[in-house]
UniProtKB/TrEMBL annotation, chain A:
SUPFAM superfamilies: NTF2-like (SSF54427). InterPro entries: NTF2-like_dom_sf, Rng_hydr_dOase-bsu. One of its GO terms (molecular function) is oxidoreductase activity. Keywords: Oxidoreductase. It comes from Sphingobium algorifonticola. Belongs to the bacterial ring-hydroxylating dioxygenase beta subunit family. This is Uncharacterized protein.
From TrEMBL, chain B:
Residues 39-125 form the Rieske domain. Belongs to the bacterial ring-hydroxylating dioxygenase alpha subunit family. GO terms for molecular function: 2 iron, 2 sulfur cluster binding; iron ion binding; oxidoreductase activity. The lineage of its organism: Bacteria, Pseudomonadati, Pseudomonadota, Alphaproteobacteria, Sphingomonadales. Keywords: 2Fe-2S, Iron, Iron-sulfur, Metal-binding, Oxidoreductase. PROSITE patterns: RIESKE. This is Rieske (2Fe-2S) protein.
Length: 161, 416
């Protein structure tokens, strides 16, 4: 297999993963942590902070148990406006592939439809991802850094991006 | 109802709902509060660390630029070109080369103090055109504000009548600020949320400890609520509109069952799989684990565990504000401490476990007060209001304090 063919194969695999990811977050959010490896990280910050190398943003999780806690809190404790989110993820770009690790980016948009309101754009940005494969060969997120173009969000940030 | 009647109908324990949404009240606030004898927060020292570093922000709805001057001096001026009113500084932050601020429209140039320094083609060309001979560059500058700081918090005022900053804050508030800024700090990140609510609803929210365990169900859901924690509330000595809440580290575990009896919501015994975000580390050098300080009119300084932040309310219009969170740490933080701050920040901010609800809470007030005239009932612990030692969560003294100061300022000049 030539390098180009290999990259195309990886890109197709990452795109397939992202298709699955949007399905999960928009339809079955309690399973969102399952998209991550056991020590999978999830970090949300603004592009403005990222470009200045400032690490703090909206959320910073380092391990899957913290993502499960997040979902448990969102589904059982937190109060936020009732809304449907709709994620769209563009085609990925592969930056690096070594061993079983893949580094990739993909652009995303999240729309928000609150009850009795016309929809609005909640966030746009880029996922900066690192993937590994589980024993079955499937991709899992070792880290997903959501870098937001917008430096402000409407009301709050609850459900995952 | 006229603006003045709306204010007259209001008392610190009963606010006429039109005070939140009347555009005339909003305009009067700009004059009597934000441009009145009040100091407003502009930024942290670490945001203008060197000469000619600047930050653009707002005082009320007025765009204001904060600039670091020579030898640690600080300058602030209204971001409005004296030529035609254009916004001179167009970036949120940065450094002005040589201390020059140049309006892009016709390139009138100003120095760091906001003084006009040059005007292109002032003398025309080959004897034609140009400004009149009587035009005196030195007579023009962007409008300056008085600037001062306590700890690393920089404030400004439009008013010559405002007392000096320390007197405006009072000794207790200065102490609470200086408690945090024990070592040089650095900004570690920023986020913001647009809240479709009047700024005063959020100002009340930050002073309202009553809602803490009732709206934010994270602690109770995960069995972490400690109703009898060792807390302390302070209100500033002069105006009563600034306040601080502090909680000491728990000495022993309490019975979460106690809280369950007081609320309608069930207490599930869910447990956090990974409670590292709640770990308390040695940081500032005392045993206070939480400190939330609301400074009138528009800033909150907080320490929640190792999450240090200022929350700056940017007042947009009667029904909209931005809440800008600037997270900071100390310059001497080891990498591991910075990481721990990032974990602790999961508790706070627009997405935080104990603050995600606040935006929604003040937005539903905005929705609910539309329609017939009415007023609020801010009565918790009113009979014992002189006693500032009630445990957190059982009084609304600080909310009434906000209104006491607010109403006094707003009625100034009405013979009150
Ligand atoms: S408006 Fe600023 S130079 Fe003309
Ligand atoms: Fe709150």
């Amino acid at each position: 297999m030539t390098g180009d063919r290999k990259m195309e194969g990886l890109a197709a695999a990452v795109d397939r993963f992202n298709t699955h990811y949007v399905y999960v977050v928009d339809n079955d959010v309690s399973n969102w942590p399952e998209c991550f490896a056991e020590d999978g990280g999830y970090h949300v910050l603004t592009k403005d902070s990222a470009s200045e190398d400032l690490p703090a943003g909206f959320l910073f999780f380092e391990r899957k148990p913290q993502l499960i806690d997040r979902i448990n809190a969102l589904l059982n404790a937190s109060i936020y406006p009732k809304a449907n989110l709709r994620h769209l993820i563009g085609a990925c770009k592969i930056h690096e592939a070594t061993g079983d690790r893949i580094k990739a980016t993909a652009p995303f948009v999240v729309y928000e439809s609150r009850e009795q309101e016309v929809p609005s754009v909640y966030a746009t940005g880029q996922y900066e991802d690192e993937f590994i494969r589980n024993e079955g060969g499937e991709l899992l997120l070792l880290s997903r850094r959501c870098v937001l173009d917008n430096d402000i969000v409407r009301t709050m940030m609850a459900l995952p991006l | 109802m006229s603006t003045i009647r709306t204010l007259e109908h209001s008392t610190p324990s009963s606010i006429d709902y039109r005070v939140y949404d009347d555009p005339e009240i909003f305009a009067l606030e700009q004059e009597r509060i934000f441009r009145g004898p009040v100091w407003s927060f502009l930024g942290l020292s670490s945001e203008v660390p060197e000469e000619n570093c600047y930050k653009s922000t707002f005082v009320g709805e007025t765009p204001v630029v904060l600039v670091g001057g020579k030898d640690g001096a600080l300058h602030a001026w209204v971001n409005r070109c004296v030529h035609k009113g254009a916004k001179v500084c167009r970036n949120a932050r940065g450094r002005a080369e040589g201390g020059a601020f140049v309006c892009v429209y016709h390139q009138w140039a100003y120095d760091a103090t906001g003084a006009l320094r040059s005007v292109p083609y002032r003398r025309g060309m080959v004897g034609k055109g140009g400004m009149p001979a009587s035009f005196d560059i030195k007579a023009h500058r962007m409008m300056p504000l008085r600037v001062d700081k306590v700890g690393d918090m920089i404030f400004a005022t439009f008013s010559d009548e405002a007392p000096d900053l320390r007197s405006f804050l009072g000794p207790a508030m200065c102490r609470a600020i200086e408690r945090i800024f024990v070592r040089p700090t650095k900004v570690i990140g920023r986020v913001a949320q647009r809240i479709e609510a009047n700024w005063k609803l959020y100002a009340e929210n930050s002073r309202d400890s009553y809602h803490g365990g009732l709206l934010h169900l994270f602690y109770t859901t995960f069995g972490l609520w400690r109703p009898a924690q060792d807390s302390k509330a302070e209100i500033d000595e002069v105006y009563g509109f600034h306040n601080s809440f502090q909680i000491r580290k728990p000495q022993q575990a309490e019975d979460p069952q106690k809280h369950k009896e007081e609320t309608a919501r069930p207490l599930d015994a869910m447990t956090l799989l990974d409670p590292t975000l709640l770990e308390l580390r040695q940081d500032i050098g005392d045993d206070i684990s939480l400190s939330i300080q609301s400074i009138f009119p528009s800033v909150v300084l907080q320490q929640i565990g190792q999450a240090l932040a200022v929350r700056h309310m940017i007042v947009r219009e009667p029904g909209a504000m931005d809440l800008v969170w600037t997270y900071f740490g100390f310059q001497d933080d080891e990498e591991d401490m910075t990481r721990h701050r990032l974990r602790a920040i999961n508790m706070v901010g627009p997405a935080g476990y104990v603050s995600v609800e606040d935006g929604e809470a003040v937005e539903i007030c905005t929705d609910g007060i539309k329609g017939p005239d009415g007023h609020s009932l801010i009565l918790m612990d009113i009979e014992k209001a002189e006693n500032p030692t009630v445990p957190m969560g059982l009084d609304e003294n600080a909310v009434r304090g906000f209104w006491k100061g607010y109403l006094k300022l707003m009625r100034a000049g009405e013979g009150q």
